[in-house]
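Continuing the batch. This is chain 6 of the set; chains 1 through 5 are on the previous pages. Same settings as before, nothing changed between runs. Recording input and output for traceability.
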Amino acid sequence: MAFCSKCGAQLNEGEKFCPSCGAPVVYDTKEAANPTQPAQTDFSQKIADLNNTADTTAEYDAQDIRNNKAMAILAYLSWLVLIPLFAAKESKFARFHCNQGIVLAVAEIIAVIVLSILDGLPLIGWIFSIVGSLLGLVCLLFAVLGIINAANGKAKELPIIGKFKILK
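Output for chain 6:
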């Protein structure tokens, strides 16, 4: 079953133009060759979907962004968040990324404390060790996303935790 890529109308097999909107029909030869195999989403698309968060870049001055990209990157490197917090306190762009970095650090600290306590439980503590390792990888992924956004001059929130505001 094929559908028009422009208007979404159902197409009959072999039609060259959409009967609804008149757009030319383009058939995907890969899909036609093997219609039972589902389309594969590559890793970069999954990361792009994960990074599809609120983008407030338009609210920041372009000169501020250019001048403070390095400071914004430092905000995601654990305790180095203190450098841009004090050295670039007049930069709204750097402060945005400092907030994101601090929220990430607080989330990591809370996770480590909770999982350390649960790790000590007899018989099931090993499960929380695995969960802690996976959570560490998620935090690393979030830090990398933040660094990429900062390096690209974007003010995008981190997934899940980016909505929280600690700095004003």
